[in-house]
Amino acid sequence: MEVVIRHTAAEVAEVAADILAGYIRPGGVLGVATGSTPIATYHELIARHGRGELSAEGVEFFALDEYVGLDHDHPQSYYRTLRDELIDPLEVDPEHLHVPDGTADPHKAGGIYEEQILAAGGIDCQLLGVGVNGHIGFNEPTSSLNSVTRLKTLHPQTVKDNARFFDSAEEVPRHVLTQGLGTIQRAGRLLLIATGANKADAVAKLVEGPLSAACPASILQWHPHATVVVDEEAAAGLANREYYEFAEANKPE
Ligand code: F6R
């Protein structure tokens, strides 16, 4: 695992956009996340697109997760969020955005989504945020390390965390469809970004703690090409920071 530390959230977005831009090419398959962390990275990609430096033509986009029961027009559905925050500003035809279907039979939607990923040839690079409890996608602690896209119940902490996007916590759906930890592991590359002091514990556990279902994001340790990009605040709990900085400064050609 490669750990990259930058001073600010804006610098994290720049590093993440540099990495993602390498996968935004005809035939590329990109896994995208929602939540607040990736927004600055998406702004950076959109700015590059605006300057004519990047075209997402011919790229397929796969979301990590979706709320059960919210249709495409619901403002808090991850489909709508990704359309508004990334797909439409990048001028991508929405038929290239794939999101688990929150209105389908939730017991079948996961398997259908797995088939869509397979049919696209697999995800080249999956962007990830991390929850304060170490979740990735909506794989809460104790999720099987080998799980596939499926129906899950949110952790009460996640309901609380995500209430900020809704009018009240009661409105946050309790059920979601999420790529599994096994699905995420099959992506060619994993890129996890985290910013802010509230992520410091989760970052320390996922980078330096044991590989464990208690911290789903720790599966990055098992992946052959995982990169974690964090700001100062999110890096605050890392014990081996000096090594990560040394490794970055002395990266082989
Ligand atoms: C979003 C997702 C979640 C978020 C995580 C962090 O698609 O799957 O795992 O990445 O909850 O959310 P933020 O970035 O809002 O702190």
TrEMBL record:
<dbReference type="GO" id="GO:0004342">
    <property type="term" value="F:glucosamine-6-phosphate deaminase activity"/>
</dbReference>
<keyword id="KW-0378">Hydrolase</keyword>
<dbReference type="GO" id="GO:0042802">
    <property type="term" value="F:identical protein binding"/>
</dbReference>
<dbReference type="GO" id="GO:0006046">
    <property type="term" value="P:N-acetylglucosamine catabolic process"/>
</dbReference>
<dbReference type="InterPro" id="IPR006148">
    <property type="entry name" value="Glc/Gal-6P_isomerase"/>
</dbReference>
<dbReference type="GO" id="GO:0005975">
    <property type="term" value="P:carbohydrate metabolic process"/>
</dbReference>
<dbReference type="InterPro" id="IPR004547">
    <property type="entry name" value="Glucosamine6P_isomerase"/>
</dbReference>
<dbReference type="Pfam" id="PF01182">
    <property type="entry name" value="Glucosamine_iso"/>
</dbReference>
<keyword id="KW-0119">Carbohydrate metabolism</keyword>
<dbReference type="GO" id="GO:0019262">
    <property type="term" value="P:N-acetylneuraminate catabolic process"/>
</dbReference>
<dbReference type="GO" id="GO:0005737">
    <property type="term" value="C:cytoplasm"/>
</dbReference>
<feature type="domain" description="Glucosamine/galactosamine-6-phosphate isomerase">
    <location>
        <begin position="4"/>
        <end position="221"/>
    </location>
</feature>
<dbReference type="InterPro" id="IPR037171">
    <property type="entry name" value="NagB/RpiA_transferase-like"/>
</dbReference>
<protein>
    <recommendedName>
        <fullName>Glucosamine-6-phosphate deaminase</fullName>
        <ecNumber>3.5.99.6</ecNumber>
    </recommendedName>
</protein>
<dbReference type="GO" id="GO:0006043">
    <property type="term" value="P:glucosamine catabolic process"/>
</dbReference>
